[in-house]
Amino acid sequence: MLFALLLACRDPYGKPLLEVGGPVALIFGASSLLSFANPGDHTHQVLIATMLGTSMVSLVRWVYCGRYRPDTGNVCIDAALLTLAVALLDIGVMSAGLPIEFTAAVVFGLCPPLLAAMSGFSIRVSSDVLLDSESVIREAPAVRSASVDEEAARPDVGKLMAISSARNSFWVTATCLGLVVTTPAMANLLAVEGWRGTVAFLAFLAAVAACLLVPRSSSSRLVRILPRVSAATILAIVIWSGTLPFTPLKLAIGLALIGLLFLGASLLVRQGRPFYGFSRIGDILQTLSVSTSLPLTLAAIGVISLVRTGGLG
């Protein structure tokens, strides 16, 4: 933990994600050693200790270099809040006597909506940047006549873009990592007999569809590549787990048929005539996958049974 704090106090070099990687790895190692020395559920201890340690190191990093590196400072604040929220979530799950798979299901269900919403909250523009309201009120010659100070109202575009790019990269990496890390725990639900196994399969379809469809509207290379790599990783983990209700060959045949269907439909469209049907279909599928991801995962983990009987069984 001491080495992690020392790394957090280094001077920034313009790569916020890489700067956080070393302290987080050290905190994870310290949390693992601490959990093995104590009896009880090791998984809850490792997760809670790692998240709280990462939150503390992120706050130290923000205090140390947040003033003169706003991109690093904003990423550190986001990391501190995110890891603290995950730690509090798992503390509540552990206090309720629920398994860590419940925490994994909540994180898995929240990642697609966060991935879809990241473009909206990755940039923060103050109203004073768009309009210097104080100078307008102070220097207005009349109620219906106001002169705007162009120098004061001019935003620092480079600073805003640096902050937005850093926060966007952080949230994309965090959501994709959360999906991949929680996939093994969610894959076990596919083997559950009855409707819960079917709902778990639909939750995986929603997560994969979100990872494939959300990057369509982004020009960032990281946003266009990382979610799609995560979707392929999720499929590989699910297939490797052997919990699918059908064989991988049937899955490959189904995906090939869907691809051929879209290929045939695209060939039927006349050349030189704009066709927005596929874009509209993609928007509808993206909305459905993002909005149903969390309800499907909660239903698959057994929230309905928990409410009715008091247990996840």
In short, what is this structure?
The protein is mostly helical and 313 residues long. The chain is 76% helix and 0% strand.
Descriptive notes:
This protein is mainly α. It has helices spanning 2-8, 16-36, 42-65, 70-95, 100-121, 127-130, 133-139, 150-153, 157-187, 195-213, 221-241, 248-268, 277-301, 303-309. The mean pLDDT is 75. The radius of gyration is 23 Å and the shape is globular. The relative contact order is 0.10. Helices cover 76% and strands 0% of the residues.
Q: What's the helix count?
A: 14
| Radius of gyration, in angstroms, nearest whole number | 23 Å
**Category by helix and strand content:** mainly alpha
Average pLDDT figure: 75
Low-confidence stretches: none
Characterize the overall form.
globular
Major sheet, described briefly?
none
Distance between the termini: 39 Å
Protein name: EccD-like transmembrane domain-containing protein
Domain EccD-like transmembrane: 27-309
InterPro entries: EccD_transm
Transmembrane segments: 46-64, 76-96, 102-123, 169-189, 195-213, 225-243, 249-269, 281-307
